[in-house]
Protein 1
Amino acid sequence: MNEKCHIYRALNFVGKRWTLLILLELYKGNSKWKRYSELKNTLLDITPKILSSRLNELREEGLIEKRVDSDKMPISSNYSLTKKGLDFVLVIKEIKKWSLKWDTIQDCKSDDCKTCLL
Amino acid sequence: MNEKCHIYRALNFVGKRWTLLILLELYKGNSKWKRYSELKNTLLDITPKILSSRLNELREEGLIEKRVDSDKMPISSNYSLTKKGLDFVLVIKEIKKWSLKWDTIQDCKSDDCKTCLL
DNA sequence: CAGGATCCAAAAGGATACTG
DNA sequence: CAGTATCCTTTTGGATCCTG
């Protein structure tokens, strides 16, 4: 409840819907820049409002950075994980390790589970 | 979004309000049993509905266990961290480490921050 | 193309009263 | 004491349309 509690601040953005999927998409890209429309097409059911909300939140927290190419039209906005964001992926992996250690379900049976974040 | 995704399952309960504070209270207790009323008194503004919801969620996920003493009246319900729950505290510590590593705010200035979970 | 604005639906949280 | 039931408020997510 404390605004300055580090744990709560972290959970405040990471606990939200779509956030991890966005981080994952950027992580898969291997530190490459991905444009807004790429993310939108990959995350099939996300609406533009939610996507930009999440991107802004992650940017405010310093996990991703944004680069705009306005030279050529149409404009393209690109996003990429920062070092802080990349480091956070390790935390997510810890969560997954914990879960795999204690869950009876050993695999989510999705291709993503293996290639996902572990 | 996948029901079986370990990461999402974990975030689904841990991301909720009060959950970490409850885990913290039980963790402070050093594996001792704490009663419902103790938790309610310590977590000042929590309402009975939320407290019992969170306790049930945590119990379903196997992070805490419940013991009821119905011998003597009035009945007392007691809660304690399981090994799985205790192990999860380590994950929370990882989140805190990450946050302390990257945040400019170095301390939440609350007594809790030091005694908290690190 | 990249989003902002608006409006609506759903979910979560919370206050209060009540019961075995 | 340890909750449950009910009702209400707030927050979040989502669908759709619009614009530089």
Protein 2
Amino acid sequence: MPEPHYQELVCAVARAIPSGRVSTYGAIAQFLALGSARMVGWALHQNRCHAPAHRVVNRKGELSGRIHFHTPTMMEELLRAEGVEVEQHQVVHFSTLFWDPSIALGDNWEPIL
DNA sequence: TGTTTGACCACGG
DNA sequence: GCCGTGGCCAAAC
């Protein structure tokens, strides 16, 4: 069995983010205990998997990845469609909407590839 | 082949 | 709070 690539792990975690919630690059990197927040950004930029990348924001709740969507407003619209309020490219009530994979998935989670 | 870059973040001052 | 810095490591050049 080949070892899963970093991208696939990131995708698997991103797919686990519930609709209406958001997570961060750093939280995913820390949860995987591999690579770094930059690597998570890189992995999502590859965009090979079908992961809800719009639910991943930076640690301040800013939509730092919006530039890389098909249109600059796409990320915001997707979030709003899920009930997430966005103002000035930033998630409103970010601290309460934040979804921490290490809490939700625990230490023994195995990726679904 | 080395260097720079990047959807980032923790840390120290 | 805001800086500057270091670190992470694959890709692009």
